[in-house]
Design brief:
316 residues; 42% helix; binds magnesium ion; binds 3-hydroxy-3-methylglutaryl-coenzyme A; TIM Barrel; 12 helices
């Protein structure tokens, strides 16, 4: 146990948790893709720079998707060159198909993410394809990206529930995970796109995936916080051995093609819990809070992050 400083949690480790967690920051992509107003490119670049300066080592920068589908990220070509030379930070970008990959590679991106769905309804809504059609689109994209030496993440959305289909059978998630690994993805991220998961469900899915030869070492978790379960779900995943957790600075986020999706787990709330457990993240919480406050000012509304509000209040 150690004594907290001002604005820091008391450190009390718990058994059987990882010593270090890699936070995959998705604020500039998942966060800003869902904003009503389009954020100026220079503000996005400054947001990414500040996140890197706060110690986040992986910051998902943008998406090379069709600009009409996600107009908020239509400036990917202008944004990426402004941040790509930042030192010591990985800047993955989303690509939905070969056209997206070519756009990303042309700018020197070396980390890409494809995004699949465990359900037919979301595959159709988000990618205009069936699940199998979208996997067929991804196969050559992943192969080409690997040939170019890029690191590839595979997202699987709607792992815990779908707004059109309800409960999602575990075998559907396992099938898509297996297909993405077979085509060469280096890591997977399990998306609770609409934030309906609870901790027992998380443990059940992780165990089912292990049984289907999907090792925990390649799995990250991506919880949206619609029902306030994201931190509890994260702790369950850590107890199972997961060491990569997606989060969004200030709790920004959602998906324009799943109306019931709200913000991601707030990075500040995650860092408060991890540091309280004595888990290393490399993140400076004070700088992170200052960054999210700065972004909230740019967006003109307060952040939903409880930790951010608590720490802001202390400083007033
Ligand atoms: P489509 O309309 O079927 O596209 O959309 P298409 O393949 O028929 O092509 C039509 C035209 O679009 C063609 O142009 C293509 O060249 C062009 P034309 O020949 O007619 O002149 N086109 C492109 N242009 C620029 N960049 C591209 C591109 N692709 C085609 N990449 C498509 C299919 C996949 C493009 C579309 O559905 C799309 O862009 N979807 C993206 C949706 C999205 O970004 N959703 C949010 C991210 S996923 C998420 O948030 C979930 C996650 O956070 C995890 C979780 O929470 O669960 C990751
Ligand atoms: Mg998401």
């Amino acid at each position: 146990m150690s004594t907290p400083g001002l604005g820091l949690p008391m450190v009390v480790p718990a058994p059987d948790l990882p010593a270090r967690v890699r936070i995959h920051e998705v604020g500039p992509r998942d966060g800003l893709q869902n904003e009503k107003a389009t954020v100026p490119t220079g503000v996005k670049a400054e947001f990414i720079r500040r996140l890197a300066d706060a110690g986040l080592r992986t910051v998902e920068a943008t998406s090379f998707v069709h600009p009409k589908w996600v107009p908020q990220l239509a400036d990917a070509e202008a944004l990426f060159p402004q941040v790509k030379d930042l030192k010591g930070v990985h800047l993955p970008v989303l690509v939905p198909n070969m056209r997206g990959l070519e756009r990303a590679l042309a700018l020197g991106a070396d980390r890409i993410a494809v995004f699949a769905s465990a359900t037919e309804s979301f595959a159709k809504a988000n990618l205009n394809r069936t699940v199998e059609e979208s996997l067929a689109v991804f196969e050559p994209v992943v192969a080409r990206a690997k040939d170019e030496g890029a690191h590839v993440r595979g997202y699987v959305s709607m792992c815990f529930g779908d707004p059109w289909e309800g409960a999602v059978p575990l075998h559907q998630v396992a099938h898509v995970c297996g297909a993405l690994l077979d085509m060469g993805c280096d890591e997977l991220s399990l998306g609770d796109t609409i934030g309906v998961a609870t901790p027992g469900h998380v443990l059940e899915l992780l165990a089912a995936l292990n049984e289907q030869h999907v090792p925990t070492s390649v799995l990250g978790v991506h919880f949206h916080d619609t029902y306030g379960q994201a931190l509890a779900n994260t702790l369950a995943a850590l107890e199972h051995g997961v060491t990569t957790v997606d989060a969004s600075a200030g709790g920004l986020g959602g998906c324009p093609y799943a109306k019931s999706a709200t913000g991601n787990l707030a990075t500040e709330d995650l860092v408060w819990m991890l540091h309280g457990l004595g888990i290393d993240t490399g993140v400076d919480l004070g700088r992170l809070v200052a960054t999210s406050e700065w972004m909230a000012d740019r967006l003109g509304r307060p952040s939903p992050s409880r930790t951010l509000r608590a720490l802001s209040h202390k400083e007033q």
